[in-house]
Specification:
There is one protein chain. The protein is an alpha/beta fold. The protein is built from 9 helices and 8 strands. It has one domain: P-loop containing nucleotide triphosphate hydrolases (Rossmann fold). Helices cover 40% and strands 17% of the residues.
Length: 230
């Protein structure tokens, strides 16, 4: 029973952290509404895709119409997280000329959330993501949805996130506690800011919250460093 209680307490803590993150995003800009949000990290394994999915579901459960797009065409993760391996997605939209309605799928958890997976792996991900077709796709999505979230490859090792950062309203950088080096964070932030990205902040993931046990948690801070834990 003790383990079950601990599990629910941890889950509640995660949900509350995501709700706080959702609120912080909504108040992050006074002059312009943040509708298109890019989520990236410095290197693989920091949990950006999980955070993208949880944030999308939280926003959808809050009454917003949300589209979550897996833009990691090289190493997609969302299909594993939601248990759906549909073979069409982003690549089909950008190469085959399919429409958004042809490839989006409904989320099993949140009624207001649609998801676009990657589809077949292309030979030229950066070129596709930086194309005029991608810009047109995002413009159309922005007209239909209240929020569009892009899960992208790590911005510290690939240019895909930088390319897409020029098309969105804000960027969140996921940082894994005890795994990501400050030099990596600084390098990723420089890459993003070099293209004029609007870095909203950093999300601290895999936070150690009890003794030496590594729990699944989140933090939110400024664009230079993680300043506080949620």
């Amino acid at each position: 029973m003790a383990k079950k209680k601990s599990y629910y307490a941890e889950t509640s803590m995660i949900d509350e952290a995501i709700r706080t993150l959702r609120t912080n995003i909504s108040f992050s800009s006074i002059d312009k509404k943040i509708k298109k949000i890019l989520i990236t990290s410095s290197h693989p394994g920091e949990g950006k895709s999980t955070i993208a999915l949880k944030l999308a579901r939280s926003m959808a459960n809050n009454g917003q119409k949300v589209l979550l797009m897996d833009c990691d065409l090289r190493n997609p993760t969302l299909s594993k997280l939601i248990g759906n391996k549909i073979s069409i997605g982003m690549t089909n939209l950008l190469v085959k000329g399919l429409q958004l309605e042809d490839v989006k799928i409904d989320d099993d958890v949140s009624n207001n959330l649609d998801i676009i997976l990657t589809g077949p792996t292309p030979p030229n991900p950066s070129e596709l993501l930086g194309s005029n077709k991608m810009k047109s796709l995002l413009s159309k999505a922005e007209e239909i949805y209240d929020v569009v979230i892009l899960d992208t490859p790590p911005g510290g090792i690939l240019t895909d996130a930088q390319v897409l950062a020029t098309m969105v309203d804000g960027v969140l950088l996921v940082v894994a506690q005890g795994e990501t080096k400050y030099e990596e964070i600084d390098n990723t932030l420089k890459n993003l800011k070099n293209v004029g990205a609007n870095v909203l902040g950093t999300v601290l993931n895999k936070v150690k919250i009890k003794g030496n046990q590594s729990k699944y948690g989140y933090g939110y801070g400024g664009s230079k460093e993680v300043k506080s834990k949620l």
